[in-house]
Predict the structure.
Amino acid sequence: MISRMRAWLGKKLEGFLWRFVHGKVEALVQRKDVHLQQSLRKEFAEADAAGEDRIQAQMNFQPALPAGWQDRVKRGDDYVDFENIFRDSSIISNRNKRYLKFFEDGRNVLDVGCGRGEFLELLQKEGMAASGTDSSPEMIKACQAKGLKNVQRAEAAAYLASLAENSQDGIFSCHVLEHLLIDKVIEFFPLAWKVLAPGGKLVVETPNPHSLPAFKLFWLDPTHVRPLSPEFLEWAARVGGFTDVEILYLTDDGFSLTHGPWYGNYALVAHK
């Protein structure tokens, strides 16, 4: 009899405690939800008040094409010509200079998707041992015409898979991953992790789809497969083995840790 009474009382208390705790949690959630709604309303109100002109400018954004680009297109016959028209090599080189600091201690740096060799030239000038690979034979010829000899034609994942473990101090890849199918993007990171030596760095740059002007420019290149959000790319890097990962947005004079609507490119920096 006493044991049955205890069991009955225990169930009653258990039910009471569950309702009590549940009620408290519900109240907290509701208060947090109200706080979140108020915060979002304030944020949007501030954006409406201060950012209407900027938003309109993003909507009306048009790419600044080089003079005479249409005539140059008529004379072009490969992807190098396309790059020369729409991605000025001197601009790319100046932008890539900011990445040299990540490889200052590197004795052996690999540029995956080296293109016309802008970053390889910068590394060479700094006295670093650098090599490059690109899937385009025209790009390899463009590099060789500049005197860059340690370059070869290869697909990114296949080349990384062929390298020995811990064989590279750094890996750089600029505007490459957006040209790959998604399974190849995901495959890229564990292969990079395998190839990097302990303490090595991986730096990847790609267009920022959170920026409306960058998103509009993205489809100018017909070889692009899909934009890659920084959130997804960080996830892919972490799944691929990297635990020290940082997203940096490119500004006119450096990097920003916080997103801005005019930051058209971002870099993923990962340390092994």
